[in-house]
Amino acid sequence: MTEANIIQGCINEDPYYQKILFERYSGRMMTLCLRYSNFQKQDAEDILQEGFIRIYDKIALYRDFGSFEGWMKRIFINIAIRRNQNLKKKASISLTLEEGRNSIQLPHAIENLSAEQILAIIENLPEGYRIVFNLYEIDGYSHAEIAQILGIKAATSRSQLTKAKILLKKMLTAYHTDFNLHTPSLNN
């Protein structure tokens, strides 16, 4: 079944096609929801449910400009961010710091970490850093798009990303150092 058939079925509010849409995309969208809910399963499930309800409601507005999955991701990300802002009663993330992007080399420790370990370390970033890091590095949004989504300036997004990378490097270095102190040497 093609994506166009599924979209048209959902536009016609056919439960069969809505179920197919959910089954096809819910796993990927749940992973996205988990990242933006700080890996709180209940919050992620709430975002997932609200996201699919919104998609079913707004699917007729989808225009074939770009990928359908990308359009869906944007809906889930917007819901998650709005939910986080409402829960914490924040209007926006605001840091106005240096402009520009620093190139940061991550420690070699990252090569020895599983995806789950890396995500757990990213989860420990402060919320503003984590959201910008996820949007830019994982989901591929530009700083201009991030600024629009979060209601901040593009320079603030760049600054948040730079600070996130600096902190992430420190966290990975600390993890690597701690790991090496507690791992027996193979040469002994």
Task: Give a brief description.
The chain has 188 residues and is mainly alpha-helical. It has helices spanning 3-11, 15-36, 41-58, 68-88, 115-123, 127-138, 143-150, 154-181.
Description:
- There is one protein chain.
- The chain is mainly alpha-helical and 188 residues long.
- It has two domains: 3-88, RNA polymerase sigma factor, region 2, helix turn helix motif (Rna Polymerase Sigma Factor, Chain: A), CATH 1.10.1740; 108-181, Orthogonal Bundle (Arc Repressor Mutant, subunit A), CATH 1.10.10.10.
- The chain is 68% helix and 0% strand.
- It has helices at 3-11, 15-36, 41-58, 68-88, 115-123, 127-138, 143-150, 154-181.
- The longest helix has 28 residues, at 154-181.
- The radius of gyration is 19 Å and the shape is elongated.
- The model is unreliable at 89-107 and 181-188 (pLDDT under 50).
